[in-house]
Amino acid sequence: MAAPAARPLHLFEGHGVEVEAMIVDAASFDVRPVADQVLRAATGEWADEAVRGDVAWSNELALHVIELKVAQPAPRLAGVAAAFQREVSAINAILAPLSARLMPGAMHPWMDPLAETVLWPHECSTIYQTFDRIFRCQGHGWSNLQSLHLNLPFHGDEEFARLHAAIRLVLPIIPALAAASPFVEGRLTGLLDNRLDFYRSHVARIPSVMGLIIPEPVFSQEEYAERIFEPIRRDVAPHDPAGVLEVEFTNARGAIARFSRGSIEIRLIDAQECPAADLAVAHLIVQAVKALCDERWSSHSTQRTWDTEPLRDLLLDTMRTADETPLRDSAYLAHFGLPSHELTAGDLWRHIAAGVPEPDDSECRRALDIILHRGPLARRLLRRLDPCISRASLRDLARSLCDGLELGEPLSPEAR
């Protein structure tokens, strides 16, 4: 997460962006657990973070994952993609002598996490060891997932309520825009967003930590503490007698309130194929949330009325079929100013995009156009494969992803 701002930020005054990427072998494209060596090369020590001007690199739970993030909340998203692309090149320059490189996407296509997971062994390892002891982190929902986290600020309960209500309505359709994980251990599962399917059950041992993935309809800090934080604190305590895990950072819902930082973090966005695509997705999600906060299509009071279960059910649908998911709930569509006849989730995102500002960066505009009209990354990945999926065809796809990340190019659905 980006460091907190020097002063409290109000709605949409800042944007925290964090994107994870895999480190893979340059020849085999298997995962390579060498993120600590990258950070050591950048800092001269076994550090968990390297701050490089307006961007920072940081570790994650698994040693084959590294994260790029803005060092401070960015007033605007313009320029963030170019800054991240610059750091991709810097990391790849460090990885080249190790015969490794960065690979984008939300899940490694054939990783076996039970055999290949190596947890971060340095600073903060006590936290990771505690999570591992309680939840067993050698699984896809822990060690084989790469996401884009988007942090949006609020100040005070009124702004929190407005932001939380809007985010809850947008969460279920995020996979229609961002699904990027159609493969698990070299096979198709029928879902386009497998990362979220594993993520929603990765803390099943203590159900209150995740809830129903869509957060409850709570609209003040006091109510949030009572209905979300206290059950987590109570249920985790017997498993964590030393109190290592902080409740704000144990909460695993699809959007989590960080009252200590004055922000809500959206966690349901799959990592894309390059920074331009990551920031294109972030831009449109921010614009959708902002339009709802501004009551462009529906009132804040009606946005607050949605129960969690129907939003969760819609999310499960979009995890499977992404942009082609039918939207039949007229009350939901009305929140976005659409008539009650049946549309797809892709239609809804195109409607939103038509009514909000475009990304400032031309690369992001191009990436967003590809996503909206050629489908999310998961769908484009499937179109690039031979009819019969094989390890060889997946390696070719992995090579294309690595090359595209290096060049900053969105993935076309056609073979190169």
The total count of strands amounts to 12
Element-level helix/strand string: EHEEEHEHHHEHHEEHHHEEHHHEHEHHHH
Radius of gyration: 20 Å
Task: Please count the helical segments.
Answer: 18
| CATH fold field value | Creatine Kinase, Chain A, domain 2
Amino- and carboxy-terminal Cα gap? 36 Å
Uncertain spans: none
Q: Structural class of the helices, strands and pairings?
A: alpha+beta
**What is the global morphology?**
globular
Please characterize this protein's 3D structure.
By secondary structure, the chain is an alpha+beta fold. The chain has a single domain, classed as 2-Layer Sandwich (Creatine Kinase, Chain A, domain 2). The protein has helices spanning 35-43, 80-95, 113-116, 125-135, 140-143, 157-170, 174-178, 194-199, 221-236, 247-250, 275-293, 300-303, 308-321, 330-334, 345-354, 362-374, 377-383, 391-407; strands spanning 16-25, 49-52, 55-59, 65-70, 100-103, 147-153, 183-184, 187-188, 255-258, 263-270, 326-327, 343-344. Strands 1, 2, 3, 4, 5, 6, 9 and 10 form an eight-stranded antiparallel β-sheet that branches. Helix 2 runs antiparallel to helix 11 and helix 11 crosses helix 16 (362-374). The chain is globular, with a radius of gyration of 20 Å. The chain starts with 15 loop residues before the first strand and ends in a 9-residue tail after the last helix. The model has no long low-confidence stretch (mean pLDDT 95).
